[in-house]
Amino acid sequence: MKIGIQTWGSVGDILPFLALAEGLQAAGHQVTVAYIAIDGSKFKAVNNRDKNFTDRKLQARIEQLEANIARYLEELDRADRQPELVPEARVSHLKEKIASIKKQIEGFNEINKQLQQTPDKQISLTDPDARSMATSGRGTGMVGYNVQTAVDTRNHLIVSHEVTNVGHDRTQLASMAAQAQNAIGKQDLTVVADRGYFSGAEILACEKLGVTPLVPKPLTSGNRAQGLFDKTDFIYLAQSDEYQCPAGQRAIRRFTTIEHGLRWHKYWSSACPACPIKAQCTTGTNRRIARWEHEDVLERMQRRFNAWPNPARLRRQTVEHPFGTLKAWMGATHFLTKSLPRVSTEMSLHVLAYNLKRIMRILGTHRLIAAMRA
Ligand code: SF4
User: Fold this and answer.
1) Is 289 in the pocket of ligand 1 (CB under 6 A)?
2) With a 6 A CB cut-off, is 277 part of the ligand 1 pocket?
3) Do 282 and 323 have their domain in common?
4) Ligand 1 atom nearest 234 alpha carbon
5) Ligand 1 atom 2: residue of nearest CA
6) Ligand 1 geometric centre to CA of 149 (Å)
7) Same domain for 142 and 208?
8) What does each of the 374 residues of the chain score in pLDDT, given as a tens digit?
């Protein structure tokens, strides 16, 4: 098994460690990789939050400064009207303040020009690759990177990792699964991930790779929140390509549409207008049910998920260990380097150290040294 290393930096530095990993394989220690847990965690960049600007942040800062100028101008007006109430020193202080704020606004306008040229309308002044990211704590966020890991659930070894500056996990599942396949040299993996990874396109891509994904569906049913039946109350009948609704009626396929690049079939029943339980189902004339053209992939996954004793616990127990360890080692500030290639190399070294310590734990130092010498 290879130690999970990726490098965007100096490949030459990393190669000896890859050889070491091959040595471990030769030593005959069998690492049984049955399941892989994929997860992402946000790591702080060398970029203060005040040095990161989004469109919204920048406008808010400029508006705040303009409001300050308006306040100082009002005070200067008062000084003109009633000079006896505002001392001369205060007047010159206000003028200096206004001049300094105008300079700050000019600076922000300059940043705004650069920001408008960026694809994601965001700019970080210290580390240009770092991005503002939401974290799990309410109202918290950081300027940093999203580190993705694929961890083997048995030994807690990081089999692959990648540093990204994308603030969400929705588009990472298939890519991380493919990297894990390459690292382990095994195609038929089962990967467990949290709701943040739920994406029809990614789950479909995993199946095409030969990977079995296990990702819970996000709980975002607007109908359920309104006390109405949600989609799980409708049974799909594959043979006739219809849905059986809670009233026992059949909703048939009516038309197909493309939304956000995905093909959706729409179903409804003609019985809705006269349905005795319509109030529990829809506020419209007919209850429409949307079905993605590859929805069978998601249904299969849901059945697998329901059959598992506790996939969420397995995932949590697996990924918390490496992320907790890495963050403890890195300290409060996390990354020390700047830019995606350097930060990626920095993380690769941490992952290498983590895996080595982990293998020492598993094999014992003597066997590890023997493996390194072999
Ligand atoms: S409103 Fe239509 S879809 Fe809903 S339960 Fe009644 S017949 Fe079925």
Assistant:
1) no
2) yes
3) no
4) 3
5) 272
6) 44
7) yes
8) 333 344 333 333 333 444 454 445 444 444 455 689 999 999 999 999 999 999 988 999 999 999 999 999 999 999 889 888 878 888 899 999 999 999 999 999 999 999 999 888 999 999 999 999 987 766 668 999 999 999 988 888 899 999 999 999 999 999 999 999 988 888 889 999 999 999 999 999 999 999 999 999 887 777 877 889 999 899 999 999 999 999 999 999 999 999 988 999 999 999 999 999 999 999 999 999 999 999 999 999 999 888 887 878 888 888 888 999 999 999 999 999 999 999 999 999 999 999 889 888 887 888 878 877 77
Cα gap 189→128, rounded to integer Å: 36
Which residue range forms the structural domain that includes residue 113?
51-124
Q: Which of 77, 93, 95, 73 lies closest to 85 in space, CA to CA?
A: 77
Provide the number of structural domains found in the chain. 3
Burial of 306 (0-12, 13-18, 19+ CB in 10 A): exposed
Identify whether 10 is part of a domain: no
- Indicate which atom in ligand 1 lies nearest the CA of residue 287: 3
Q: Is the CB of 272 under 6 A from ligand 1?
A: yes
Answer whether 347's CB lies under 8 Å from 325's CB.
Answer: no
Q: Distance from CA of residue 20 to its chain's centroid? A: 32
Judgement on whether residues 214 and 273 belong to the same structural domain of the protein: no
The answer, yes or no, to whether any atom of ligand 1 lies below 6 A from the CB of 338, is no
176 located within any domain: yes
Helix (H) / strand (E) containing 262: strand 262-268
Same domain, 246 and 358: no
Residues 324 and 353 in one domain: yes
> Does the beta carbon of 250 lie inside 6 Å of ligand 1?
no
State in Å: Cα 275 to ligand 1 middle.
6
- Output the residue whose Cα is nearest ligand 1's atom 7: 272
Which residue, of 90, 124, 158, is where some domain finishes?
A: 124
* 271 close to ligand 1 (CB < 6 Angstrom): yes
* Domain annotation covers residue 261: yes
Structure tokens at 325: 């360890």
Q: Point out the ligand 1 atom lying closest to the alpha carbon of residue 272.
A: 2
Is 203 in the same domain as 151? yes
How many degrees, rounded to 5, is the angle at CA 214 between CA 208 and CA 219?
120
**Index of the ligand 1 atom closest to the CA of residue 271:** 7
Which residue's CA is the nearest one to ligand 1's atom 5? 247
| Same domain for 39 and 177 | yes
Residue 9 lies in a domain: no
Pair 294, 236: CB distance under 8 Å: no
